[in-house]
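Hi Prof. W.,

I finally got the 4-dimethylallyltryptophan N-methyltransferase prediction working! I wasn't sure whether to trim anything, so I left the full sequence exactly as given:
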Amino acid sequence: MAGLTVLDVRQSSTEESIRDKIIEGMCKEKKELTSLIVCSAEGLRHWDRHSADTDYYIRHEELGIFKSKANEIASSIPDGGVVVESGSGTLENVIPMLEALEHQEKNVTYYALDVSHSEIASSLEVIPTETYKHVRFGGLYGTFDDALRWLEEDPAVRDLPHCVLFLGSSIGSFSKSDAARFLRSIATHALKSPNSSVLVGIDGCKEPLKVLRAYTADGARGFLMSGMDHANAILREGHSEDETGSVPPTFDPEKWYYLTRWNRHLGRQEGSYFPRSDDVRLGPPLEHIVVKKDELVQVAVSQKYGHQERKQLFDEAGLQEVASWSNEGCDGGQYISPYAVLYRLQPTNL
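And this is what came out:
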């Protein structure tokens, strides 16, 4: 990865941001934990194994779209622009698009964004950058909000066309109302310059058994349970050791199970922690909180969108569809195809 720059765009430390979200979520009446707790190096190793499983259709369907539609997707990205991908992971899905951009001789800069500096480095290492003459590469170390602020304010990039990639059905990790607000925030902060857009992957599968198989596939439990270890590591800082010479964990993994279920009413998968048997009193700094034995602590959701739901989402976000791509045989309206579409969106006032 010689010569590649990873820019630190954080407004505050990532750990402080996640810490605040953990405490805020556990103090709510309906307790929840931010899904950022699974974004540790250990969690991402489990994730790579989980998402590679054949039952985890989202990764494989999205890769199929990028392989078959790479030239069309690349054609929609303007020359001289900046491409930012959130949660870069293995980059396997976007490599066909990057190769197509190079073939089209478009001078663009691709930035892999992640809250883990080491993950950015390992992601970029898989790209043979020496074979690219037109596409340049870099990394952004920080949260998605940090990246939006950077795109809006940094003189080197603020006036260039921006293409924000939000793939892997990550938009499903929000409630519908929060998803609309999130996309509106992207439009407000990152899509001001002409020809800017956001490319978002949306899952339209509402077949409960297929969804549940995907979210309980090999590696799923390790991925989600690693979040407790990461939360403990973040919350442990600044607390005193007990008589054994260690800091008691906020969450003792031995006292918790992980549950995934399909919420038919809301049309989404939900992942939660819950006590194994008895009520659980948390450790510092949340020792005043007791989680009842039948109480669920939500940590992850994956909202699925039908055709009308997608249209409503875009309307509420102030975005318009300018292009879409899907696999052959996709029928998102009937929820037959497991992975619906990739949408290219622009603000309605452009």
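Residues 330-340 have pLDDT under 50 and may be disordered. Does that look reasonable to you?

Thanks,
D.
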